[in-house]
Amino acid sequence: MTGRATTLGRAPTSEEDPLTTTSTRPAPAADASPLATAHHQLATAVAHLGYDDGLHQMLATPRREMHVAVPLRRDDGSSALFHGFRVQHNVSRGPGKGGLRYHPSVDIDEVRALAMWMSWKCAIVDLPFGGAKGGIGIDPREHSTAELERVTRRYTSELMPVIGPETDIMAPDMGTDAGTMAWIMDTYSVNRGYTIPAVVTGKPLTVGGSLGRGTATSAGIVHVTAAALKEDDVPLDSVSVAIQGFGKVGGHAAAIFAERGAKVVAVSDQYGGVRADDGLDVARLFTHVERTGSVVGFDGADPVSNEELLGLDVDVLVPAAVEGVLTATTAHHVRARWVVEGANGPTTTAADEILAAKGVTVVPDVLANAGGVVVSYFEWVQANQAYWWTEPEIAEKLAWRMASAYASVSALARRDELSLREAALIIGVQRTAEAHQIRGLYP
Ligand SMILES: NC(=O)C1=CN([C@@H]2O[C@H](COP(=O)(O)OP(=O)(O)OC[C@H]3O[C@@H](n4cnc5c(N)ncnc54)[C@H](OP(=O)(O)O)[C@@H]3O)[C@@H](O)[C@H]2O)C=CC1
Ligand SMILES: O=C(O)CCC(=O)C(=O)O
Predict the structure, then answer these.
(1) For ligand 2, what atom is nearest to the CA of residue 117?
(2) Which residue among 68, 130, 333, 395 is least enclosed by CB atoms within 10 Å?
(3) What is the per-residue pLDDT for 27?
(4) Looking at ligand 1, which atom is closest to the CA of residue 172?
């Protein structure tokens, strides 16, 4: 141990300074699944840090996985069965933390990848959490609210032994929302015999949610976009932005970009997209979506497909929907100068290399979308102390944390000539490994 501070504000634990170890990039796997992408990213960080195979295996392997059967009695009396998962990837820095996803494509490997990304993300923004993620392979659009409530309560009951405010704390992700969190909190609390708001975050304000959580991921995206632009002396209010996904993340990101003076020229959802080169009226677009359920058909805008949106001639592209949309094929068409990853895992390893060769700056998911889990942490702290902060307090603490995480990542990237993703991953992996080693769990 050298005892001197690194740019991460921590001392390296191995004999050599891991941050100056020569980087050897592992070859990307042919498989472009989220798990293959996550494993490749980890292997790259591990090679840079000079960790041995045992530590690499530990970091690659989830601590605990649950696979639960979730039976549902449908409103019409028929029955159905869904598969639910919860993966606690790493808990060395604190309880597992991460969202719950309802989407038909959810499977154990996707949840493993998302849980691993949560570990690095929480470490990058220096939260006292490990990484976890959950999901159910269900299409929420096919079910009534009552059916979704029954599914959620059953899933929560099955997970009772492994979740809790000190062990694993869920939050909304794709296909779930504050209401889902309220059902989880209620089911958990009823089983324990008293109200335990800190078992979930992202819940409604009336049951102990935090101000600012609903928009936190998007606010964080805009903070890091502004920081990345600033490195090239580009003001936020001079750029055009295209956003894929108009849900909790993409929708609020569009609103905040517009509020801050950026021109949002295109957005999309599952059904397709809309574009207006002079800028979309985002407030009016929200009304349209509320009325019709989709951005498609928005008055005064032209249609654009999800794939076309990725190749629009804009300054900033924000993929904020599903994984793996920027591939070896679509990455070639990207014309944006900055890609800011609102979604988890939107860029495959092959696409990452293509974007780097084109000179595109990619602000990686584990940094760019960390604002959500940062305010989840604030919500957990507030619930534990039963004292709530004001919105300006939360906004200020979020801005500070995102700015300082961006600064650490950018400093390391510049120092060691790394991409922002490589630098972010190295910081996240190193902090996680250090916690693991210092607790003596690894000889
Ligand atoms: N919610 C959060 O706090 C955080 C979310 N994330 C990540 O952000 C991403 C989006 O999450 P979130 O906004 O919460 O999810 P939502 O379910 O709220 O919204 C998802 C959006 O993506 C759209 N979408 C779904 N599938 C596709 C597709 N194949 N092509 C184009 N658009 C699609 C949906 O369309 P439609 O409306 O038509 O269904 C919707 O607009 C995910 O990757 C999630 O993991 C990351 C950090 C935190
Ligand atoms: O707020 C949280 O706990 C986690 C949000 C999430 O799932 C994510 O960042 O991907």
Answers:
(1) 10
(2) 333
(3) 65
(4) 1
Below-70 pLDDT ranges, the chain: 1-31, 441-443
Q: How many CA atoms lie within 13 A of 353 on its CB side?
A: 13
Whether 340 is in a domain gets the answer yes
Structural domain containing residue 317: 215-363
Minimum CA distance residue for ligand 1 atom 11: 174
Q: Is 37 annotated as a binding residue?
A: no
Instruction: Give me the pLDDT at residue 14, please.
Output: 34
* 365-413 confidence digits (pLDDT tens): 999 999 999 999 999 999 999 999 999 999 999 999 999 999 999 999 9
Residues 337, 232 share a domain: yes
Q: How far is the CA of 54 from the centre of ligand 1 (A)?
A: 35
pTM (global) more than 0.90:
yes
One of 133, 203, 248, 263 is an active-site residue; which one?
A: 133
At which of 166, 196, 226 does a domain end?
Answer: 196
Query: How many whole angstroms from 99 Cα to the centroid of ligand 1?
Result: 12
| pLDDT tens, residue by residue, 424-441 | 999 999 999 999 999 986
Q: What is the CATH number of the domain that holds 167?
A: 3.40.50.10860
Give the Cα separation of 214 and 303 in Å (integer).
28
Do 172 and 67 share a domain, yes or no? Answer: yes
- Of the candidates 238, 261, 241, 254, which has an alpha carbon nearest to the alpha carbon of residue 295? 254
Number of domains into which the chain is organized: 2
- Same domain, yes or no: 148 and 259: no
Contacts of 131 (CB under 8 A, 6+ apart): 88, 89, 90, 96, 97, 98, 115, 116, 117, 118, 119, 120, 121, 122
According to DSSP, the β-strands at 130-136 and 240-244 are unpaired
Q: What percent of the chain has pLDDT over 70?
A: 92
| Strand runs labelled E in 126-229 | 130-136, 168-172
Ligand closest to 125 (CA) is 2
Q: Is residue 417 part of a domain?
A: no
Task: Name the residue of 119, 133, 169, 248 whose CB sits within 8 Å of the most ligand 1 atoms, as the mutation to test its pocket.
Answer: 248
**CATH code of the domain containing 323:** 3.40.50.720
Question: How far away, in angstroms, is 17 Cα from ligand 2 center?
Answer: 31
Give 124-167 pLDDT, tens digit per residue: 999 999 999 999 999 999 999 999 999 999 999 999 999 999 99
Domain finish residue from 317, 336, 363: 363
